[in-house]
Amino acid sequence: MAGGGFVDPGAAKRAHLYEYKITSYFVYACVVAALGGSLFGYDLGVSGGVTSMDDFLKDFFPKVYRRKQAHLKETDYCKYDNQLLTLFTSSLYFAGLVSTFAASHVTRNKGRKISIICGSISFFLGAVLNAAAVNISMLIIGRIFLGIGIGFGNQAVPLYLSEMAPAKIRGAINQLFQLTTCVGILIANLINYGTEKIHPWGWRLSLGLATVPATMMFIGGLFLPETPNSLVEQGRLDEGRKVLEKVRGTKNVDAEFADLLDASEAARAITHPFNNLLERKNRPQLIIGALGIPAFQQLTGMNSILFYAPVIFQSLGFGSGASLYSSIITSTTLVLATFVSMAIVDKLGRRFLFIEAGCQMILSMIVVAIVLALKFGHGETLEKGYAVTLVICICLFVAAYGWSWGPLGWLVPSELFPLETRSAGQSVVVCVNLFFTAAIAQCFLVSLCHLRYGIFLLFAGLILIMSLFIYFLLPETKQVPIEEISFLWQNHWLWKKYVLSGEKRPSI
Predict the structure, then answer these.
(1) What is the CATH number of domain 24-502?
(2) Where is it localised (predicted)?
């Protein structure tokens, strides 16, 4: 099969000797670490809802408010087209993509736990500033602090979960990050639905409540164990073995610990991990994990829908309350889809979910575009039947994303990198992800204004491209121990040309 690849039994080391039990200590560590996703999710959900609230717009974006109230024919698609308004959303992600490189240094040298705690502190400060904002400058500065928090959290949490999880359930455990992200989105939409009725300061409550997940993450993070991989990487071998025994619930961890020692030796030989990412032998991880998947995750168009779901639904003729209610429906769908993904990702595999979801997302976007092309843009509210069709199609799109690109966009890159470049690689993943998140956030509303229904056809075309990318280039990683993923490249039809020759000569 194109893109397939399996661990070479002769090359694989000790994976068949690994033992583990699901312990309360392991469950606590993963649940607390996964709270990092709730920061990301809450902001995704709350920012779109707040930017559709009249009280918020009157205080900070009066021109947008007046345009929204005008209900003119030409503002059906364009009533929210304002670059300063979208900068309120996207500034967070520009800050995050810069801060993730500082997070890489902290994560590699001080551990995953410290990065998680740093992220929670910065996010808390940003939430306080946003809730207390009296001008746009305070809003943007607050968003920058939020972005730094997300840069640290998104850098450390997926690594933490993948390193703590046994290979056979690594997919499900890593997706706790996506699950808490989706729950954060849902909670934010529920809060927005309630606070929209609190005049004139409901939006402040929505933004300020971001301090709650940040506080939970900080307190829980103080008691988190460091991952055995990180402890071994730092030379704290005895401590690393003790944590590994406690997390796995058995003293018989000799095989797994030996693999960690081997990976650590390779890691210590690398003094410049970012340079090492560019070596020929690391070309698959660079192209697939660091560049392709995080960029494509945003180019699906999903985060645009999450950012601006209330705005989209209002633009399409839904009332303010109805638009927020529709957002609750889509975010609930996202949570349920994540549970589906957690249940089947380690059975059916990553490639199956990527490809099936790609087909479903393409069809959904095409139907949305057709409905809008035929029935929307004439200055009138959509008929109920067509409005329901749009919500259903968007929910089908969200569901497909929720069991594929959403969770797998974080899971797969966190699996691919060897220990010596793992923190550096994850920084590039976060940087690329947040760059495209910010770019999409900044460009979506103006694109909606000018491309109209064509924006959804554009996303359909991009999803086709990314599905082909997965089919031909990504090997299946389900149930492969994280320190033995590198053997997959040696059997891949394309990547074996790079990794085998990369051992003998420098990159080109």
Answers:
(1) 1.20.1250.20
(2) Membrane
